[in-house]
């Protein structure tokens, strides 16, 4: 009987060890499953956070680009309007050249030129202004016509200094001020 007892004892011990192994395997399996679930949840949360950050960045870029395009279009519209208004100003300056005061304006310009550059000048202007400039400047008048809206260009006889009093140049010099006035 001792052999039967020994066999029973071995069987009981083997069943107990087997049950312990099954219990340990089950605990490890549930721990691995729990760790896997936590890792999956963490990866999902990280993915969601990354997607939200990327989406926010993309939205910010699109909004910034849209704002830039809007500013660009407003600027372009202002430039078109300003260019049109500058064209109108040039037209008004051209109208001045047909007024009765225009010869007096040319005389004043000639006086300014002689004050700044001296008496020995070479004066030129538009072909339409030749008779007035010839009467104002006398021998200093150079009859080579210039393509300007109005006014005159004076330079010293040696060509070292030049004073451009054409309406085109005066408008160009004051264009920023004119743009500010027109934009207001």
Strand ordering within the main sheet: 1-2-3
- Class from secondary-structure proportions: mainly alpha
Average the pLDDT over all residues and give the rounded result.
Answer: 88
What's the total helix number?
Answer: 5
Terminal Cα separation, in Å?
Answer: 119 Å
Helix content class: over 70%
The percent range for strand residues is 5-15%
What is the element string, with H for helices and E for strands? HHEHEEHH
How many domains make up the coordinates?
A: 2
Mind telling me the C-alpha Rg?
A: 47 Å
* Main beta-sheet annotation: 3 strands, antiparallel
The number of strands is: 3
Defining traits:
hypothetical protein PF0899 fold, 2 domains, 9% strand
Folded structure, characterized:
The protein is mainly alpha-helical and 184 residues long. It has helices at residues 2-96, 102-117, 130-137, 167-173, 175-183; strands at residues 121-125, 151-156, 162-166. Helix 1 crosses helix 5. It is rod-shaped, with a radius of gyration of 47 Å. The N and C termini lie far apart (119 Å). The model has no long low-confidence stretch (mean pLDDT 88).
What is the topological layout?
Elements: H1 2-96, H2 102-117, E1 121-125, H3 130-137, E2 151-156, E3 162-166, H4 167-173, H5 175-183
Antiparallel strand pairs: 1-2, 2-3
Helix pairs in contact: 1-5, 2-3
